[in-house]
Amino acid sequence: MSNLEETVHTRTNQNTIRNVSSIHTSKKTRFILVGVIIGSLIAGIGLATVLTMYIDDQSKKTLPQPAQVHHQVLQQQVPVLQQVLPQLVQVQVHRRALHPPVLQRQHHLHLFLIFSGRLTQILMICTMSTMHCHSFTWEMWSYPINLDNYDNLMLGMCETTTQNKCMYLMIRTNCTYFAFFNNDCHGSTVVLTNRWYHIAFVYDYVTLTQYIYLNGVLECTHSSSAPFQATNGAMTIGAINNTGTSPAAFWTGYIDQMSYVSRAKNATEILTDATLVAYYSFDNGSFYDLGPNQIIGAGVNVVATTGRVGQSLLLNDSSAYFQAGGFTLLGVWGQPYSISLWVNKPPSTSPGGTLVHVSGSSNGTLWCIPMLGPVLQAGVWNHIVTSYSMTNGVRLWINGTLMGSSPTFTYAASSSPNWITVGTTFPAAMSCAHGSVSVGQFYGMIDELRVYSRELTASDVSALANA
Asked: Which end of the chain is more exposed for a tag (fewer CB within 10 A), N or C?
């Protein structure tokens, strides 16, 4: 990192993403099959299958179940916060009437902060003088539980209540709001309660412009905006703390993965931060998530081998698979999603096998769907994308070409964080509805697995297929 850029992260939970399935069919000549299934819960039980076969002879070219909820007082976690907030010191409550928020464990590696406005909870950190007359970006995942206040503050810093001396990052009248005090940017999309949102607040000192992004989409632009000019004043998370007054506009809900960089991120970076849920390159046999959420996976009986890009995972054992858990948005009804991966199946291996299995538990059961099953053309790398949106239904892309799509429908999700298993459907999950997907052990190579919380566009898919 250069000395021109400062980065601070409050890493706690994770976001995640949606869904499952994919479809369709066509072409002819040589059987290389990609099965996909669309899950539509009927009366909460049945899953309807929609199409599944793709035949082509062309040679073209995402752990254990979430841990029990766990609460700890923030002041007991100061060592943890000092690790994730190296430049932000003394997380302390300064008034008897105030209470520290709590850390809640939703997944065994991830924590997020819970704030209760009723308990007047607030997190106080040191002054960020680097924002004075400078570009910057603040990003966070927010889950509002109550937005009854006129202002609901996520982050603020105020030296004095005069123009450009106070910064408020908040929800005002149920819309996003980025304020420098009488120098403000107001979003228009209504923010609902009881759901996660990625919100980015960007100030570009070069162009004197404020930006708000909601879930990666530009929400507000305010040009000719003078810079933030405060150099003193306590920075607070969860309430407004104007100098000389009592804290107000308390946040009620969760805040996760709050981060700061001392530059203006561009729209592409924000979209990636908001919608790339996980990215596994598998280089050097690593199961580390190179995306913004660090959802570390696990591999069983897999080995590193030459990949489409760098190295890939070779699944050459009857019990080989890769798995990662905690995909929250994959469990949300109607949530768009895309899953992208490269696949190479050697001609000598047995046909069939599950490429991607999505489930409510680590053993592949509860809510479950084997989404993709091969084989595509043997002996070459094939790029596969399955995506879903309420507008376009489920789509299947092979090597950058749209092969088919389903009728539109509302994806009936699990309503809980999901697991993604690559390379097999476990014996306990063989009864999961799978249509014509040939479930079982996949033998071959998997590379460049990406999971998104949005539907990829044709140009997005083409870029991935031709990278």
From this structure: N
